[in-house]
Amino acid sequence: MTKRLWLAAGLALLTGISASIYFNAEPEKEHRQVKTLDQIQLPDLNGKEQSVSQWQGKVLLINFWATWCPPCREEIPVFLSLRNKFSSAGFEVVGVSIDYVNKVKQYRDSMQINYPLLDGEEKGMAIMLALGSPSGGLPFSVLYDRNGNAVHSKSGPYEQQELQSLIEKYL
Q1: What is the DSSP string of 99-131?
Q2: Mean pLDDT of the region 3-12
Q3: Which of 7, 64, 100, 143 has the fewest CB atoms below 10 angstroms from its CB?
Q4: C-alpha distance from residue 57 to each of 41, 68, 114 (Å)
Q5: What number is the average pLDDT over the span 20-40?
Q6: Omega before 139 cis (within 30°)?
């Protein structure tokens, strides 16, 4: 019994040390401070590198999400609705998935997501932290004005009226 107790304690200690190292690790050097949209480059779901700066000139919402995240899935209909309502006025949503590409493609098709999706699996968390995410939790969103300035960020899901008010302010 004593050996099992020591083994469990050792395993718990190793798990704690590993988690501490993982969650306190610095983001990749290239993403420690993201000041402009052209610094964010990620592959789309087909593997083609995309620069987020291609959407500069629009009011842009960058949303970090995953298919396994219930609050992330809850806010996608909000994004679809507001994109449909405001895209002609210059609003765009770009989703950055922290997930496996095949799962994201399946979810995109089932939800009929019509906004650009980028694969953030390898660099997404580092970029999210560099953009100001306090914990690395999902969902995390950053709203940019037409000049590419970050004007609002949020950890957690948006409610439709909350996000609509912000979009209307910057359109």
Answers
A1: S-HHHHHHHHHHHT--S-EEE-TTTHHHHHHHT
A2: 45
A3: 7
A4: 17, 32, 20
A5: 52
A6: yes
Question: Once rounded to an integer, what is the mean pLDDT over residues 20-48?
Answer: 64
User: Phi and psi (nearest 5°) for 50?
Assistant: -130, 140
- Taking domain 34-170, whether its CATH number is 3.40.30.10 is answered by yes
Q: Is the pLDDT of residue 124 over 70?
A: yes
Cα–Cα–Cα angle for 44, 25, 20, rounded to 5 degrees: 120
User: In the structure encoding, which two tokens stand for residue 99, read together?
Assistant: 């997930």
Rounded-to-5 percentages of helix, strand, coil across the chain: 50, 20, 30
The residue ranges of DSSP E strands in the chain, in sequence order, are 41-43, 49-51, 59-65, 91-97, 117-119, 140-144, 150-155
Domain ranges of the chain: 34-170
Q: DSSP letter for 25, please.
A: P
**Residue 125: partners with Cβ closer than 8 Å, 6 or more residues away:** 27, 98, 136
- Count other Cβ atoms within 10 Å, centred on residue 145: 16
Q: What are phi and psi of 42, to 5 degrees?
A: -140, 155
pTM: 0.80
Average pLDDT over residues 1-11: 47
Q: Is the pLDDT of residue 113 over 50?
A: yes
